[in-house]
Fold this protein.
Amino acid sequence: MKAVGIVGSPRVNGNTEIITAHTLRAIEEEGIEIELIRLAGRDIRPCNACMACKKEETCPIEDDLFPIYTKMKEADAIILASPVYYGSATALLKALMERTGYIAHNNGRPFDRKVGGPLAVARHAGQNFTIAQLTFWFQVMGCFTPGSTYWNVSFGREKGEVEKDEEGLRAAWNFGKNVAFLVKKLGT
């Protein structure tokens, strides 16, 4: 069993990565293999609606997306994490969601019945829309999304500030525990 946490922040070792790693530790503690995938520094372009993925499980855009798509396919659980950028997920993460979504939708829906869910980090606001935006992607993909003790949101702007958000840390940890529980229950 394996869980991947995809960090959609352009910042390496920033708040989004910190909260994702925290969640993954909760999952790992339950005996599930984990992998943190940073999108920072990667070339992931938006979908251009060429529809090549309707013919075969591929994407002709030559960038860093397809190896990540493969890891998502192989995982039992997928976590998408984003800082809030102007009230939304980052363009980098949205490009990944669009392209992996189209490829999956047109090729047997490999994310169907996987466990998945969102994490968001906000400086001040926008977290509700970002969490909803990411959750909607999981719903369209047919994933099971466990809850937590509150929304999977943490607050912080400067690197490390999320570590002071006790409620956010607790929600992310409990979300990780629920992801692990559901993965085990499903026996995927």
Observations:
- The two ends are 7 Å apart (CA to CA).
- The chain is about 40% helix and 15% strand.
- The beta strands are 2-7, 33-38, 77-83, 115-122, 153-155.
